[in-house]
Amino acid sequence: MPALDTLQKLEILADAAKYDASCASSGTSKRNSTGGKGIGSTEGMGICHAYAPDGRCISLLKILLTNHCIFDCHYCVNRKSSNVRRARFTPQEAADLTLTFYRRNYIEGLFLSSGIIKSSNHTMEQMVETARILREDHDFRGYIHLKTIPEADPELVHQAGLYADRVSINVELPTDAGLTRLAPDKNAAQIEGAMGGVKMAIRQAKDEKKRFKHAPRFAPGGQSTQMIVGADAASDADIVGKASRLYDSFKLRRVYYSAFSPIPDASAVLPLKRPPLMREHRLYQSDWLMRFYGYAPREVMQATEADGNLPLDIDPKLAWALKFRESFPVDVNRASREMLLRVPGLGVKAVNQIIASRRHRTLRLDDVAKLTVSITKVRPFIVALDWRPLTLTDRTDLRAMLAPKQEQLELFAA
């Protein structure tokens, strides 16, 4: 087989990395190259973002170090039994590529993952070496996110955290049974043990930083994880419960959800088609409700349908409100912030503005309408000075009234 050049490797390994959704670049400490020291910044200034054909904003060089893998996870396109083109970067090649892209103003940092080659420890050493070259040899101050390997030696994972802004360990699937069935080489207890070790290292680094000015930082952007949605029989209720436990147990910055996508030469144990992308979207909305709107996990689970999945035609917040209509309407001039956050159509910013405005005057429906995209969605659930929904809140067809209207697109429309 002829040797691949750098662009050919990039084509293969960037495409292979697209299935990992957990590549945000938020929450880290600020660094820049002011004064001519080092290269790069984590503040995003001077970075121009490239856009993929499907509209995604790409600001990180997102690649695998290699798509060779000794594991045979059924859902993974890079599993050892998969018939795909293989490629591999050396740590020096990955570092050089990152620097080249940064100097051309294409990216703000690196998201690096990898298949498992030779062994977990060998692969982790290669990823750590890539980060070391960037940080120590080139004084790179941009963002680095390393996808760590739970089977690797804890000391190697610790070294990764010393170089990276954020580290992540994928739990892969929502249930232990699903992981055992679809990823026989992986172990749920081992994955969570590695996540626990990262949590303790982050906490220890923060404590040391309070006492010692020059204490080394450890993954200041925290850790995250990802779950695949729709590859097994887990319901949305199972996924929400798992995500909540992970947030509580490991103080994660984010849980990412990735809708299962059929892969070439797929295993017979996998679904024949992908779940609706809207399901992934609804899970992100439910995650938002728990993180920013004060919903308990059990309340989000209460918004699910009989099959344990969130409705696809309406968002989880509206689904919960329709199931618990006795909690509404709420008076925008008197209700607590917690109850206003439960009103469908009112976001955190709108609620804060309502609370600030009502200190000075009694709010009317028109005042609320100025703070929301659609007052139609809000009206059945609030009381204002000049508005009461009367029987509107209890209408049997309220869901149909508030659900987004489906439109048939024209094939030859201009």
Describe the structure.
With 414 residues, this protein is an alpha/beta fold. It has two domains: 6-227, Alpha-Beta Barrel (TIM Barrel); 324-402, DNA polymerase, domain 1 (Orthogonal Bundle), CATH 1.10.150. It contains 15 helices and ten strands. The chain has helices at residues 6-16, 91-103, 120-137, 154-163, 176-182, 188-211, 236-250, 277-292, 297-302, 316-323, 337-340, 348-357, 365-369, 375-378, 398-402; strands at residues 50-51, 57-58, 60-64, 109-113, 143-147, 166-168, 223-229, 254-259, 330-331, 382-383. The protein has a six-stranded parallel sheet. Helix 7 (236-250) links the parallel strand 7 (223-229) and strand 8. Helix 3 runs parallel beside helix 4 (154-163) and helix 7 crosses helix 8 (277-292). It is globular, with a radius of gyration of 24 Å.
Instruction: Indicate the low-confidence ranges by residue numbers.
Output: 42-54
Structural class: alpha/beta
Strands of the largest sheet, in order across it? 3-4-5-6-7-8
Q: Span between N and C termini?
A: 48 Å
**Largest sheet descriptor:** 6 strands, parallel
User: What would the average pLDDT be, to the nearest integer?
Assistant: 89
- At the first level of CATH, what is the class of the largest domain? Alpha Beta
What is the CA-atom radius of gyration, in angstroms? 24 Å
Based on the coordinates given, report the CATH architecture of the largest domain: Alpha-Beta Barrel
Query: Helical region count?
Result: 15
Total domain modules: 2
Cofactor: [4Fe-4S] cluster
Keywords: Iron, Iron-sulfur, Metal-binding, S-adenosyl-L-methionine
Protein name: Putative DNA modification/repair radical SAM protein
GO molecular function: catalytic activity; iron-sulfur cluster binding; metal ion binding
